[in-house]
Amino acid sequence: MKEEIHKCIEVLKAGGLILYPTDTVWGIGCDATNEKAVQKVFDLKKRTDSKSLIVIVANDRMLNYHVNDVPELAWDIVDISNKPTTIIYEDGKNLAINVMAEDKSIAIRMIKEGFAHQLAFNYRKPIVSTSANISTSPTPNSYNEISDEIKNGVDLIVNHSFDSGNKKPSSLIKLDLNGEIQIIRK
Q1: 87-96 pLDDT, tens per residue?
Q2: Which of 10, 12, 18, 72 has CA 20 to 30 A from 33's CA?
Q3: Domain 2-185 architecture
């Protein structure tokens, strides 16, 4: 796994795109602080850049560095959630402007284990984690369902043996600073 992570980090540092297994489905990834790399993701997915992307982080420190005010409820959700859960925070910071929504909200998932966790932990920066499909196409449930267009559009494909995802997108919850919760995807 170390060698694969090292290869990914080199591509991420160079502003490239990776195709990698996450704690959910296979994802297209890039450095979430690199505006040009984020634009490459939008271009590959043929996705309008008015939509934000999901970002993964490895720990509390990374989350605090990229969100101005993490509501206390968010920590509870992260601690008790028994499945991958992405939380939309109101005020992102220290990220590429195009990875956030127009209102500066940002969808972040803290990954606790597996290849994607090790990658984010060792890279020490947030990584884009968007499903490996063209925007209007269904989310692939396995590596074999990913289109050649996506596979050919990235700079590195991670070894498939690290695929331990649950084959479903994460839950998606929006939290505001008052503690109001909106469930966007179960």
Answers
A1: 999 999 999 9
A2: 72
A3: Alpha-Beta Complex (3.90)
